[in-house]
Amino acid sequence: MSDFIAFFVRFLPDLLKGASITLLLTAEGLSAGFVLGLLATVARTYGSKFWRGLAVTYIELFRGTPLLVQLFLIYYGLPGLGLTLSRELSAFLALGLNSGAYQAEYLRGSILAIGDGQMMAGRSIGMSKWKTIWYVILPQALRLAIPAWSNEPVSLLKSTAVVFLIAVPELMAKAKSIAAKTYDPIGSYIAVAVIYLAAVYLLDAFLRWLERASCIPGFETEGRKA
Amino acid sequence: MPVPTPINQMSNIFSYIVQGTAITVGVTLIALPFGLLIGLLMALVHTYGGKILNRLATGYSLLMRGVPPIVLLFILYFMISGSINLSPFWAGSISLGIVSSAYQMEILRGALLAVGGGQMTAARAVGMSRLQAIQFVILPQAIRHAIPPWSNEASIVLKDSSLVYALGVPEILRRAQQLSATTQQPFIAYGTAALIYFVLVFAVNRGLDYLSARTKLPTHS
Amino acid sequence: MTNPILETRKLTKIYGQNTIFKDISLKVNEGETIVIIGPSGTGKSTLLRCINLLTSHDGGQVFLDGREITAKGFNEDEVRQQIGMVFQNFLLFNHLTALDNVMIGLTKVRKMPKDKAREKAMEELIRVGLADRADHYPGQLSGGQQQRVAIARALAMDPRVMLFDEPTSALDPELIGEVLNVMAQLARDRMTMVVVTHEMGFAREVADRIVFMEKGSIVEEGSPDDLFYHPKHDRTREFLWKITELYGKKEKEKGGKS
């Protein structure tokens, strides 16, 4: 155990450098995914047939294939069509597109939970469809989605670990090079696991706090009172 | 592998990747039941075991689910292949199963919880032992509750099986990579891999939806 | 009375194979309160939604102030500002306080400045007796209070007509009175109202005219006295007999509340 601690401390600066890239990728992917997911859900729920079809295709394709395959298709595959992207940009695109498809589903669940009633109420006082979506449906849907959505940052953080396979220098890439240097793969991957574990639980605690802070009195009891 | 001529290039790409599909399916079919077995044991221990066992199971779940699957896969793989002589295919599949076990445990725990304590009390009241109650009353109901989330996990394991690519197992993605190198058609190679995964995931989801509909109890809403 | 403020001509609604209602022709004069009664599933609620263009219709026309609002290209959102609607299940915006619920139409649809909108919204809340609940979220209000906020929300748009779709049927018995009182006061203020309800006491006391609908058509209409004491059709008599049998007890329990 003390050996491992010495090992851990020795490589900690290097690992933290990787961790900062991991966190950056998570934040970027999450933000891009949020915008994409929001657009896809609104298109799917309220769009015309064309936009609905497009959104469903996007969501199903990216949820129905492994992130690693998407990453390779973007980084190694797209050059075959004459489009060469850097490692970092490829990782960002793959994570954002992938996360967007999942975030779309979280949002859709809560939009469906709100039901047609709120749309009707909005229309009944003369609001247009898009105004009702913006001022009535989305503010509620986003709040309702928080509990389910709060799994996504943690899940995405864990997903970023595959991008070392296209040599983006994040946490796992550091572990791999330490393993090669020290001939101790188990030790180096456990060291990395410890850092992931810490990051995941810190992020989780933060999201739980956020969930409580954004709560509206009585909102969760919607429809229960007669 | 011989360098393909342009004429049969397309069909070659396809059939070569399809061979990798068998390996992908194999990894999934080993990992899933393996994870189910450990996950079920852990869920039962967590729900019906004593305080200490409950703590241990909770710790196992938090630890395993707090680390990216690929990191766990590497740790487990090096541990397994360091202690027993197993091929990357088997070591990778078993490791993936252990990764999945913590997620399956949570699914089953939720399902056991959904059945509720009343059923256990009722079963004990008609003279069943705890084990009999679990076997004849709790589990048959819990499994039904578990099917929808479990089918989600099944497609996650199928998608995660692509991670054994990193261990050198010649599954779909690894073959796509080799083909991309020999044919210089990376988009077609990786696109085909993506397509096969999509079809597999689609089939798994539909199959389990069907199972869920078939096993639904008449009164369940 | 002069020209009707709201009129339907041969309005028809069909869902697939089912005719929900057919050839409904109804005239509502300014300041009049019309109560529509009839068995469940006779298309009363759908009729209100068609009048408000919340549901599309399959035949006939609707006129508001002599203009055909069912005409192609007519601005639906503008129509709905002029026809207020109160729903059975309130449908307050759950993420907004009572005051914001009443304000949102004024600020976002009417583009009224915030302070003016707040003033107006507060007036409407005072009108329904809920000034002290302005900062409460729907989840913190009783059903009766929620429905009164919903009435204030509709009133804030200064509608020409108010439609009520079974406004008290989702309420616990002890909360019905407060909503009916607000509606009775509106009627006394000569607001034009079309009310679908099973509250026969309210119909008898407040309505200028009662319309009995069954199986998608109007069977009979007339003053409360005509309908309750001298119904022309057997179906009307049967329905009223049944409903007094069913609701009579409840009405008695409520006493003089409404």
What does this structure look like?
The complex is a heterotrimer of chains A (226), B (221) and C (258). Chain A is mainly α and 226 residues long. Chain A is built from nine helices and no strands. In chain A, helix 1 runs antiparallel to helix 2 (49-63) and helix 8 packs antiparallel against helix 9. Chain A starts with a helix and ends in a 13-residue tail after the last helix. The model of chain A is unreliable at 221-226 (pLDDT under 50). Chain B has 221 residues and is mainly alpha-helical. Helix content of chain B is 81%, strand content 0%. With 258 residues, chain C is of the alpha/beta class. In chain C, a hairpin with a 2-residue loop joins strand 4 and strand 5. In chain C, helix 3 crosses helix 4 (114-127) and helix 5 runs parallel beside helix 6. Helix content of chain C is 40%, strand content 23%. The relative contact order of chain C is 0.16. Chain A binds chain B through residues 60-61, 64-70, 72-73, 76-81, 157-162, 165, 172, 175, 185-186, 189-190, 192-193, 196-197, 200-201, and chain B through 63, 66-72, 74-75, 78-79, 82, 155, 159-163, 165-166, 172-173, 176-177, 180, 184-191, 193-194, 197-198, 201-202.
> Could you say which overall geometry of chain A the principal axes of the C-alpha atoms support?
flat
The portion of residues forming beta strands of chain A comes to under 5%
What separation lies between the terminal Cα atoms of chain C?
28 Å
**How much β-strand is present in the residues of chain C?**
15-25%
Attribute tags:
heterotrimer; A: 226 residues; B: 221 residues; mainly alpha
Summarize the model shown:
Chain A has 226 residues and is mainly α. Chain A contains nine helices and no strands. Chain A has helices at residues 2-46, 49-63, 67-77, 87-114, 116-124, 129-149, 151-159, 171-182, 185-213.
Layout of SSEs?
The complex is a heterotrimer of chains A (226), B (221) and C (258).
Chain A: H1 2-46, H2 49-63, H3 67-77, H4 87-114, H5 116-124, H6 129-149, H7 151-159, H8 171-182, H9 185-213
Helix pairs in contact in A: 1-2, 1-4, 1-7, 1-8, 1-9, 2-4, 3-4, 4-6, 5-6, 7-9, 8-9
Chain B: H1 9-48, H2 51-65, H3 69-83, H4 88-115, H5 117-125, H6 130-160, H7 172-183, H8 186-215
Helix pairs in contact in B: 1-2, 1-4, 1-7, 1-8, 2-4, 3-4, 4-6, 5-6, 6-8, 7-8
Chain C: E1 6-15, E2 18-28, E3 33-37, H1 44-51, E4 59-64, E5 67-68, H2 76-82, E6 83-86, H3 98-109, H4 114-127, H5 143-155, E7 161-165, H6 173-188, E8 192-196, H7 200-206, E9 209-214, E10 217-222, H8 224-229, H9 234-254
Parallel strand pairs in C: 3-8, 3-9, 6-7, 7-8
Antiparallel strand pairs in C: 1-2, 1-4, 4-5, 9-10
